[in-house]
Amino acid sequence: MMTHPLDNIFWHSLSDAQSCFAAGEGDARRYAKGFSPILGFANALQPDFDAINAYCEPGELFYCAGWIGTIPSGWTLEVESTMYRMLWDGVMPPEDATFQARRLNPDNVKDTQDAVSLAQLTNPGPFGMRTIALGEYLGCFDKDDRLIAMAGERSYAPPYREVSGVCTHPDFQGKGLAKRLMHRLIRRQLLADEIPFLHVMYSNSAAHELYLRMGFRDYCQTAVRVIRRIE
Q1: How far is CA 187 from CA 91, 95, 180, 190, 211, in A?
Q2: What is the pLDDT of residues 131-187, one digit of tens each?
Q3: Which range of residues forms the domain containing residue 21?
Q4: C or N terminus of the chain, fewer CB within 10 Å?
Q5: How far apart are CA 209 and CA 86, in angstroms?
């Protein structure tokens, strides 16, 4: 039975357009080591862990969406929650020529380290040393060349492109930096005939309300788990 790509977005991304960033076989994939620790399964409701076990080391944490079944042998549940998957339904954001933002270079050690440090400080979701290679990541910097805000692109199943890694250093929140970064990314995506979408935790009501005001709408609400390989 055919399903909409957004109903199982991580599988559609990892098994097709982003297969170059994936590891796994059969009906299971993961982003390769160093990228965002996310699992994707052809059947999200009944994931085939036997097909992915060999690609996951003991101690590794992974995010898994859309699944609420029994935890399989060799794994343990760390977090169980719910998130919104939101789809762009707004107008083209206006061009913001005066906004100072810079593309983060995945081949630049400083850019990579700065992005990971900001993600660790603010916890925008699963993030790894190589995550900024998954798409375009934009950052704002202070006068000392410190990364203070960023937003980028993660999963991609044409034409759906995820806006992700949205975060701002606590010392610079409330200035609208993340929103302006998001607008620049969304504008680029729309001009490329892509459709933006994003994820936000159900508990993060402030961010959810902001995204609704920006022009996103709720596509669905889905389970999300963080699980750990133990053997």
Answers
A1: 9, 8, 10, 5, 15
A2: 999 999 999 999 999 999 999 999 999 999 999 999 999 999 999 999 999 999 999
A3: 5-84+224-229
A4: N
A5: 11
